[in-house]
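User: Before I run my own analysis I want an independent prediction to cross-check against. Here's the chain; please return only the structure tokens and, at the end, one sentence I can use as a sanity check.
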Amino acid sequence: MSTSVPTVSLRSSATTVAIPALGFGVWQVPDDAVEAAVITALESGYRHIDTARIYGNESGVGRALATARAAGMPSEDVFVTTKVWNDDHREVRAAFDASMARLGLDTLDLYLIHWPAPAGDAYVDAWRELVALRDEGRVRAIGVCNFHIPHLQRLADEVGELPAINQIELHPYLQQAELRAFHAEHGIVTESWSPLASGKQVLDDPVIAEVAAKHGVTPAQAIIRWHLDLGAVVIPKSVTPSRIRENIDVFGFALDADDLAAFGVLDRGMRTGPNPDEFNLHAVNSR
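Assistant: Structure tokens:
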């Protein structure tokens, strides 16, 4: 039995777009393995798939989407995100067309700038192209990943429009409160990547274990629920069918104020990925 996932509203020009609050991430999933993983996710109730050009698996995601369509699942039922990589900031349209061909789609739900890559000084130009793609109807909503407040402010100052969503590294050991507050103030949805901190220490944290035991769930489920209760969109990743199903089984409980307070003191500023201010233009060894 699949799970029904609630949605969050993304602003998009004069309208809004509904994005499922819990999605399926495919970072580090090889192209030859991603089709089976995505099909398992869709069968489990996920309706939001997050990929990127640099992951090297857009073609496999496209095959999974084609399989789902052949089985009777309408294209519009699955929300698909992909991203423009750092070295394509000045070639956004070509990158977009190539991604769409690999995905086998005519219209994309969400297109993101993957990193600001400030050393290249082209993310503002890339943002203008995303706005144009959205206004032409080729993309339903647009946003960014890994942008800090100065990067976001520059988009507002030079283009006159902020992203609908900012996908950032977010987990109990890296809570990014100041950035999330900026998002809330400006109507930007927060989306969490590495929501389980790649399993590094977080899943063994005794505070999280205690909260999980209180609700009769696993630590991973408690953490995913924490993201949802913060109001974030969250995209856990797994290729193990049982884990894929476990990660979406988080809508039968909610964390209370005491739980959220317990999570709130766990922040250590611990990144599992690079600092967006320092990540260089062509590096490919991070999500």
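Sanity check: The chain has one domain: 7-197+224-249.
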